[in-house]
Write a structure and sequence with these properties.
The chain is of the alpha/beta class. 54% of the residues lie in helices and 18% in strands.
């Protein structure tokens, strides 16, 4: 599980974490396990299975330790291919062989432990122990090791533990494989994914967060990104945000000539929070990721008057008792908007938390037509079903280069389109509806990324 988890996250800075990526990773993982079980069954019929098992464990450690090297040097070059093909190939290169080797060990362990009469007993024990081990390694890696040390160190540590435990258990060493293992670890330990322009980089299960600086002439911009998709872009020279959608939200709020409480779900760099505080609003920012909160304070000068709450946006909505003049949903993480935050039930709660003349703003991708626009139509119908009248603002005429800003206010004269779906808590279909838009967004990033290299 640790290999699958880290492998998938090593893909995310290039390919994101969309439905396509996780489908590829899960398919490759299952294919690797199936191949490993068959291969292990074949090897279990050979003589000296103890030696074979030792070599398989060493080989698994070698292939695992080589994953960071492949992710850094090979996967970016594959990204030039067709997106779906690139994701599948990259997942296969990183994960297939290590998982085949790990899957191969189960039949060999059973052969070592079991006789003909108690094969079932030991089969259950081996698979039960391996499953419990997978659960523990996932929890320990996800909650403790990865946030502190990152993906590369986590996966290399796992490989080292695997090889050392094999040596201790069998009290044997395959000198040739051990030398190869040392070389692959050396190559992978040399990798430093942090670029020269990077001020901060941190990895966790929620993605790779990075703060970079770019200089254009006399102008300096500071950028916050998640999995290489820009979340906040701020000009340090003139203290102005480069994000057009933020300017639309600010303009729409200021033209009402009404002050009061503002709730911003999704802090980012805190640029919008600062804009509104400077204009006399009481601002509360809700952010799930502690690292982003720290980045907003350390790199984007978050105004100390902003009340920051570390919480999941939907959990906050469910338990909130305050009323706001404006509520802003700025929840995109990389190219994905959490579907559970924009359901009918969520919007019904939000409506109760707005003042009589309050407004809801939602930052959204730019696609509104064709198959890429299915998610937008679903969101429109969901807002209508919750009793919101909607006005859409776009940052650009070209859908691929724009953001949509939803300006919604409670209304009793709203009609729901029966032919369009609604995103419910117990039927969250928005990720599926947004799949092509997310895919196109990631492709646009890859074109930009490849054009700079």
């Amino acid at each position: 599980m640790t290999v699958e988890l880290c492998g998938a996250r090593l893909l995310s800075p290039i390919y994101g974490t969309s439905l396509y990526v996780w489908s590829s990773v899960m398919a490759i993982t299952l294919a690797g396990l199936a191949a490993g079980y068959f291969l292990g069954a074949f090897f279990s019929q050979k003589k000296d299975t103890s030696k074979i098992l030792l070599n398989v464990l060493f080989s698994a450690g070698i292939f695992i330790s080589f994953i960071p090297f492949l992710a850094y040097y090979i996967v970016p070059r594959i990204s030039y291919f067709n997106f779906n093909l690139a994701v599948l190939l990259s997942s296969g290169i990183l994960l297939f062989i290590p998982i085949v080797a790990l899957g191969c060990t189960s039949p060999l362990f059973i052969k070592q432990l079991a006789s003909d009469t108690d094969a079932g007993k030991f089969s259950g024990m081996v698979y039960g122990i391996s499953t419990v081990g997978g659960i523990l390694s996932t929890l320990i890696s996800g909650f403790y090791i990865i946030p502190v040390f990152g993906f590369n160190t986590t996966i290399l540590t796992f490989g080292i533990i695997l090889v050392l435990s094999s040596i201790i258990t069998f009290k044997k060493i395959n000198t040739g494989l051990l030398l190869v293992f040392i070389v692959t670890n050396y190559l992978s330990f040399q990798i430093n994914p942090k670029s020269k322009s990077s001020l901060f980089r941190k990895e966790s299960l929620n993605g790779t967060i990075e703060v970079t600086e770019e200089r254009t002439g006399n102008s300096v911009s500071r950028i916050l990104s998640i999995n290489n998709i820009i979340q906040t872009e701020y000009n340090l020279t003139n203290k102005v945000s480069s994000s057009k959608y933020l300017k639309i939200i600010e303009s729409e709020i200021l033209k009402d000539s009404t002050t009061g409480n503002v709730l911003i779900l999704g802090l980012g760099g805190g640029v919008l929070c600062n804009m509104l505080v400077e204009n006399g609003f009481n601002v509360t920012g809700v952010e799930f990721d502690e690292r982003i909160i720290n980045c907003s304070r350390n790199y984007f000068n978050l105004n100390p008057n902003v009340k920051v709450i570390e919480d999941d946006a939907r959990n906050f909505i469910n338990n909130n008792k305050e009323v706001y003049q404006y509520i802003v949903f700025d929840l995109f993480k990389s190219e994905e908007c959490p579907a559970h935050t924009v359901t009918l039930e969520s919007f019904e709660l939000v409506k109760k938390q707005l003042t009589a003349n309050g407004k809801l703003f939602i930052n959204w991708h730019g696609y509104y037509s064709g198959k890429e626009g299915l998610g937008t139509l679903t969101l429109l119908n969901t807002l209508s079903a919750a009793g919101f009248e909607v006005n859409l603002k776009s940052t650009d005429k070209l859908q691929a280069h724009s953001n949509l800003v939803w300006v919604a206010k409670p209304s009793k004269n709203v009609s729901v389109i029966s032919s369009l779906p609604i995103n419910f808590d117990n039927y969250q279909l928005l990720e599926k509806q947004n799949a092509l838009a997310s895919l196109q967004w990631r492709k646009n990033y890859l074109n930009y990324y490849q054009g700079k290299n």
